Amino acid sequence: MERLTLNADRCWFKSGDPAFDSYSLAPELSSFSGKPRFLLVPTGQPEARPLLVAEGTAGTGNVSVYGPLLSEEIGQRAESDIARWQSGSDDCVS
Fold first, then answer.
1. CB 41 within 8 A of CB 22
2. How far apart are alpha carbons 44 and 42 in whole angstroms?
3. Using CB atoms within 10 A of its CB, is residue 23 exposed (0-12), middle (13-18) or buried (19+)?
4. Is 31 among the domain residues?
5. How far, in Å, CA of 80 to CA of 74, rounded?
6. What is the reported pTM?
7. Owning domain of residue 62
């Protein structure tokens, strides 16, 4: 999950991708539940309800992606990016 989170930060936010201007990344990698994750939340609202969650299961390569953003084009792109990163690629595609 750390690599996926770093890729999301680099490809979506540090690159200045305008598709993600309205969102902020909220990593939650230290989890006692065994489910490290990162969230996309509205920019400037870190406590807001997450719009997208990418959640791993410790000790496995399984990653679940869910949230209301998936019903939008940007959510589908995010899901595709996460799947690509999960398969071993670190490429950014816009």
1. no
2. 6
3. buried
4. yes
5. 10
6. 0.89
7. 2-86
